[in-house]
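Protein modeling request. Please complete all fields; requests missing the sequence field cannot be processed.
Requester role: graduate student
Desired output: 3D structure, token encoding
Chains: 1
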Amino acid sequence: MPVDPYPRPVLDLLAAAGDRPVFEHGDRAVTGARLLGMVRRCAAGLRAAGVGPGDGLALLLGISPEAFAAIIAGYVVGARVVGVRPGLPDAQLRHLLSQDITAAVTDGEPGPGDLRLDDLLSAPDDGGPLVLSGRHDDVARIVHTSGSTGTPKACAQTYAAMNAAWTARPESWPPAIRELASRLQRYLVFGTLSSQVMMEYGILTLAAGGTLVAAEAPSLPEAIVKHRASAGVITVPRLYKLVAAQRATPADLSSLRALMVSGSPVQAARLREAREVLGPVVFHGYGQTETGTISMATPDDPPPSLGVPPDVIDISIRDASGAPVPPGQDGELYVRTPSQAVGYWGDPEETARVFVDGWVRTRDLGHFDADGRLHLIGRTRDVIIVNAELHYAGPIERALAASPDLAEAYVIGAPDEDTGEAVHAFVVPAPGRIPDFDALRHLVRERLGAACVPATITVIDEVPAGPNGKPDKRLLKAPG
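Delivered output (480 residues):
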């Protein structure tokens, strides 16, 4: 018997929830049955507007149960759902909306031809079973990468791939996800549901029997205290700020059981500090927009490992020529996941470079340790070319961060008349410490050699972050 297309697993979760609250928004507590009714009305409204299989559907929505329902309804009618992050520059927004978009839905001020979310919700609800129109090989959603290593790319994921994901199916959860799910009683959502990470953890919360809790102003730790949140997603800079705030003026975080760190690696010393200050609540996830979750470290996994990848994830570690490297040796990670993207929408050249014979080139470097845990050491493109020799930024940053004087370290390359490029370091001091620049240079020289020694070291309060909250080294500029 053919398997129903996505979002059947999500609809089943809402139906099973019945009268249980699944989404809190301000003073409202929306039950599974009510949210399912919103999905039916939104789907009817989309179909009345002529939106169907294969059509591009842009969603310019905030955080609300109605926005969640509109997203799921987009999949019900078989559209290609494109989430739009709030705050995009006009030029980027126009570019995104020009890419084969049939209709756009907004909960704000509508533009010419836009569909209003309130109008969709005014469609009749017959209360009957939803007819799912998604075609397995059609693109179900477009998720844009963060752009932290260049221009954001539009990752295309099919209905078949979304149906293969284990997020909504507890029987398929790997051990780390099962441990995380047990802590998702009240999951804090903020920013935008177009975020792949925010939405996927939201679906996981529904499957775990928890409640999504909307936070209009997600300042931490205030939002955790106000909403009695048990879990939330946090970027690395936000994690560091939360730890500092808890050291200075501790808040009552007794409800907190899980913080899912995403977007970029956490330096081992800072992860240990976070666990010391916040308790055993930090889950360090690793994944990409192209692949979904690859691995996750639970609070019991020793830093800086990223835990043991699930059995359904294939990882091949290869050298620069694409050949597998011996166990324990560093190389580039090639990954296969059940729910990975099929390529980049409208970009066949980049698709051919990254999606190779069924594998996704992550452009990340790493290895497995003797216990099967995954370790990352940097990115293949995060390099500094000194005297025609490539030196990866990751090992230099880790060498610097090994100093007890430092909380964080970041390095970039900049043109140099003598060596082509030179290393420039930006460091965040550990609380109460004053970095010794000579000692830091000696540390790097002893570990990695003279070519990796920073030409300059600049003390900063914090690393600059991009619009998505991730550290953005492109905003760091070498002195002079």
